[in-house]
Structures are given as structure tokens and as C-alpha cells.
Amino acid sequence: MKLAEVPKEQLPESKRRMNAEEQRAHLAQKSRDRARIQAEIQKLRVERNQFLSREFNEDNAVATLDDAIIGAVREQGRRKNPAWE
């Protein structure tokens, strides 16, 4: 959709007061801001994945809630019936 095709009534009040050139400049700035933010998000996503890989690799396994619950149930079962696995 092109900016010129959007009826003025559908624009926010702040954009209605702008002329076409100001609207184009504003949209271009917003596009640059969005691209910068998206690049930052991607960079942080990569850093997060690297962190998680380092912290939760198989050599440094961290017990999950599932592991804790299963371990507790097994321990309770062994206390009540030593032959229980």
C-alpha cells in the first residue's frame, strides 16, 4: 500500500498535520529505526543462544523440574518398597 493511497481520515492525528514530504521522511526514519531494532534483536538472540548452549550443555547438565519430580517419586517409592524402581 502506498502512503498516497491512505485516506487522511485513517491516519493518526499527528500524521494528518504533516505534508506528504514530512510523512515520507517520518516513515523513512521509522523504517530505519525498525531495521536497527531488528538487528539488535537478532544480535541478542544469537548471544542468548550461545549463552544457553554454554550453560546447559550435556557436560554441565542442569536438573529440570521434570527430573526433580521423577527423582522425588522414585525416592519415595524406594522408601516404601526397597524393591521398587
Architecture blueprint of SSEs:
Layout: H1 13-16, H2 20-55, H3 65-80
Folded structure, characterized:
The protein has helices spanning 13-16, 20-55, 65-80. The protein is elongated. The chain has 85 residues and is an all-alpha fold.
Mean pLDDT: 85
Q: Any idea what the radius of gyration is? A: 28 Å
Largest sheet: none
What is the structural class? mainly alpha
Can you give the helix content as a percent range? 55-70%
For the termini, the CA-CA separation is 65 Å
Tell me the total number of β-strands.
0
Q: What is the string of helix and strand elements?
A: HHH
The amount of beta strand, in percent, is under 5%
The number of distinct helices, counting runs of at least 4 residues, comes to 3
Summarize the entry for a quick read.
The chain has 85 residues and is mostly helical.
Features of the shown structure:
85 residues; mainly alpha
